[in-house]
Amino acid sequence: MKDLHFPMGKVAIPILTGFILINSLNGYLLNMSKSPASSLSYQKPIFNKDGLNPLVSESAYLKAMRWLRNNTPASAQVMAENPKDVKLLSQRYAHPLQRSKAPAHLKRHIIKHTDYIIEEPNSPVSKEYLSPTLQRYPNSFRLVYNDTHAQVRIWKVLAN
């Protein structure tokens, strides 16, 4: 028994690391079981895939999605830069923002396929593609939601 050498340092560190990881995961799972909605908060991407410009704050985006869910028909068709986020958070069908630099073409597409548009004024994609169309055809769209800092806007598409 005396000849048995047990390298404590080589074994103790991985064991302690494992315990820490297991306890962290256990705490996370316990929080989930209490209230999934409160323990998991949606994290809007900090940077757009097209550049390094910040998009919107998490709370502004979540408030807009809550408004969309509570104030639009369940069958509403929504056009957005991030359709997966919109679909998940608002429970509305969403499709991607068409990237057309021709405002007339984009307007026709929107009127044919969309009931509501999500505009993120700080986003380079919205600035380049959507904003020119909204400005050129103000009678085709009605602003129905605008957060206090103008980080997210929701437009109702009018049939004209």
Short description:
With 160 residues, the chain is an alpha/beta fold. It has helices at 8-34, 36-39, 58-71, 83-90, 103-113, 124-136, and strands at residues 77-80, 93-96, 116-119, 141-146, 153-157. 48% of the residues lie in helices and 14% in strands.
Written account of the structure:
There is one protein chain. The chain is α/β, with parallel strands linked by helices. It has 2 domains: 32 residues; 100 residues, D-Maltodextrin-Binding Protein, domain 2, CATH 3.40.190. Helices cover 48% and strands 14% of the residues. It is built from 6 helices and 5 strands; from the N terminus they run αααβαβαβαββ. A 5-stranded mixed beta sheet has the order 2-1-3-5-4. A hairpin with a 6-residue loop joins strand 4 and strand 5. Helix 5 crosses helix 6. The chain is globular, with a radius of gyration of 24 Å. About 18% of the residues have low confidence.
Q: Strand portion, in percent?
A: 5-15%
- Point out poorly predicted stretches: 28-56
Gyration radius, rounded: 24 Å
Cα end-to-end separation: 90 Å
> Mean pLDDT across all residues, rounded?
74
Task: Could you tell me the CATH topology label of the largest domain.
Answer: D-Maltodextrin-Binding Protein, domain 2
Structural class determined from secondary elements: alpha/beta
Give the helices and strands as they follow along the chain: HHHEHEHEHEE
Number of E-type strands: 5
| CA-based shape | globular
| Residues in helix, % | 40-55%
The biggest sheet, with number of strands, parallel, antiparallel or mixed sense and barrel status, is: 5 strands, mixed
